[in-house]
Amino acid sequence: MKRILFSAVLFLTLNMGAYALNDWGQTGHRTTGQIAEIHLSKKAKKEIDKILNGRSLAFISTYADEIKSDERFREYSPWHYVNLKEGETTYTQETANPKGDLLMALRKCLSVLKDKDSSKEDKEFYLKLLVHFMGDLHQPLHTGRGEDKGGNDIQVRWYNEGSNLHRVWDSEMIDSYDMSFSELANNTKKLSKEQKAELISGSFEDWMYESKALSEKVYNSVEVGEKLGYQYMYDWFPVVGEQLQKGGIRLASVLNEIYK
What CDD domains does its record include (predicted)? Predict the structure, then answer.
């Protein structure tokens, strides 16, 4: 009986730990992937279809989270985030994580996918990572502070359940809205050509700084131990939607540039 109880506790502990380190959650990542599909060029769609053997960007968008439990892929764990300490305003190689970070990951993916000599296996692997990491880039707390693990250590209550700030932004607001990823993707804000052009201008680093600026607002949006619910959803879920849309449109832009 003790052995069964210990196994159950261990299972819950491991799974809760893994959940706490997720990003956007499955619905958020799939939404970003689906939005990107809508904005792909015909040529990009054709090339991506070959690489993914017909699977959609939404389908493969969660791959980088799915491999976290496999020891062979442990080296990619730091690639999901980039941290600047409180007060730091500039990203430099000197202050970057020597094991890699989100910016380095995106650049690596781009390099492999642009290289004509890359194997199909590598192209598939890094395309899957790129789709996921573009989602991570637009979850503001993945550019948050390292000292609190991107808000994971900031305890709050989500309605009547214990939670943390990172988890609220990862998945709990999205889950509470109770729409599928396809419904979310098909109900984004309409943008003019000029707005879309402005949105996709810039670089990975520019978009990281944009997300970083948003993360500071997110940090200031709560008090430790605060009970969050309807008002927080009203104030912040539109921002979640904007970030998902930005991630999807920018992902499509990157892919269209690769496969032009």
Answer: S1-P1_nuclease (cd11010)
Residues pairing with 227 in the sheet = 157
Residues 6+ apart with CB under 8 A from 157: 163, 225, 226, 227, 228
Any idea where the domains of the chain sit in the sequence?
24-258
- As a whole number of angstroms, the distance between CA 89 and CA 102 comes to 17
Q: Which residue has the tokens 């261990």?
A: 10
Longest dimension (CA), the chain: 65
pLDDT digits over 118-171, tens only?
Answer: 999 999 999 999 999 999 999 999 999 989 999 999 999 999 999 999 999 999
d(CA 119, CA 117): 6
Distance separating the N- and C-terminal Cα atoms of the chain: 61
Distance (Å, rounded) from C-alpha 233 to C-alpha 240? 10
Tokens, residue 55: 């699977």
Kindly tell me the burial class for residue 35, based on how many C-beta atoms sit within 10 Å of its own C-beta (0-12, 13-18, 19 or more).
buried
The b/e string for 71-80 (b: 16+ C-beta within 10 A; e otherwise) is eeeeebebbb
Task: Look up residue 215 and give its two tokens.
Answer: 């993360």
Just give the CATH number of 24-258: 1.10.575.10
